[in-house]
Amino acid sequence: LFTAVVLVSAGRSGLENVNSVEALQETLIRALRTLIMKNHPNEVSIFTKLLLKLPDLRSLNNMHSEELLAFKVHP
Questions:
Q1: Is the separation of the CB atoms in 32 and 5 below 8 Å?
Q2: Half-sphere exposure of 39 toward its Cβ, with a 13 Å CA cutoff?
């Protein structure tokens, strides 16, 4: 579920329906929060810590995608 939250981002360039992606992203984040609260009721900071990792993980994902595209263009 956390992987889906990382990968689904309304901030990606070239999106045609940003509102749909934002709605999906919000649904995934709510589901993740619910799951964490259910499985770790005494550790309320886990959800916040995961959300704080999102910018770095998305940046890493973008860099990886760029490298893959460059590799395909210049084998």
A1: yes
A2: 8
Confirm if 23 and 10 have CB atoms less than 8 A apart. Answer: no
Amino acid in position 52: L
Joined together, the tokens standing for residue 24 give 């999906």
- The 8-class DSSP code of residue 9 comes to -
Round to whole Å and give the CA distance between 7 and 24: 11
pTM: 0.78
Between CA 40 and CA 48 the distance in angstroms is 13
Whether residue 11 is predicted with pLDDT greater than 80 in this model: the reply is no
Tens digits of residue pLDDT in 28-69: 999 999 999 999 999 989 999 999 999 998 888 788 878 888
